[in-house]
Specification:
Layout (H helix, E strand, L loop, with lengths): L1 H19 L4 E5 L5 E6 L8 E4 L9 H7 L4 E7 L2 E6 L5 H17 L10 H11 L10 H20 L2 E9 L2 E8 L7 H16 L6 E4 L1
Parallel strand pairs: 7-8
Antiparallel strand pairs: 1-2, 2-5, 3-4, 4-5, 6-7
Helix pairs in contact: 5-6
């Protein structure tokens, strides 16, 4: 009985320590000058990522809706521990970064869900249907190898820059990918595709890859 009580006490104290860890949010530039990352030490969503292009699409995310209330916000990309905000070229980051950081911090501190739980299943189901990468049984052997290489060598670096990359198709030695978040519309994304991703795939899959193009 005493052992049980002690174990429960330890778990209680451990949980209390976790709850005391303050939530923090810091801003981080990305290779795309139009996109800023706001990184938190608190997990934001259970999905790998979700992207919103306007406030109508953001109906299942209270945080994204608040961000779209800023007239300069163009797109919102939310990952597990950060939100990447893309702005219109009507303001400079120096004048709005602190305001956005404080909004994200206050939202997370309030304990509200970044996404509505009752709609998570629908969002994930839609994402699963949209990308062949999420359905490995439908991929050929070469496509599967391409997806594995993107997952291992490319995606971590792209996510670090505030974006995401998804495999779309492979045909006639051409790999088509979808760029999201900070990578979408980034001036350096074409260079990244040509000098980085293309080189990796050609080195790992010689004679099978001629080009990598975004869709």
């Amino acid at each position: 009985m005493n052992l049980l009580c002690n174990a429960q006490s330890i778990r209680y104290l451990y949980n209390m320590e976790i709850e005391r860890v303050p939530i923090s949010v810091y801003a981080e530039m990305t290779p795309n000058p139009a996109v800023m990352k706001f990184v938190s030490n608190k997990r934001m969503i259970e999905l790998e990522h979700v992207e919103y292009h306007n406030i109508e699409e953001a109906s299942n995310s209270p945080l994204a809706i608040k961000l779209f209330h800023f007239p300069f916000v163009k797109e919102v990309f939310i990952s597990s521990n950060f939100v990447a905000v893309q702005k219109y070229n009507v303001v400079e980051w120096e004048t709005v970064t602190q305001e956005i950081r404080e909004l994200v911090l206050e939202f997370l501190q309030s304990g509200q869900a970044v996404m509505k739980f009752d709609q998570l299943h629908e969002v994930k189901k839609t994402a699963d249907a949209a990308t062949p990468e999420e359905n490995p049984t439908e991929l050929s052997e070469i496509e599967g190898r391409i997806v594995d290489l993107l997952e291992e060598y490319v995606k971590p670096a792209v996510q670090q820059d505030g974006g995401n990359i998804s495999f779309v198709s492979y045909e006639n030695k051409i790999v088509k990918v979808q760029l999201q978040g900070a990578c979408s519309g980034c001036p350096s994304s074409t260079l990244t595709l040509q000098s980085g991703i293309k080189s990796i795939l050609q080195r790992m899959l010689p004679t099978l890859i001629e080009d990598v193009v975004p869709v």
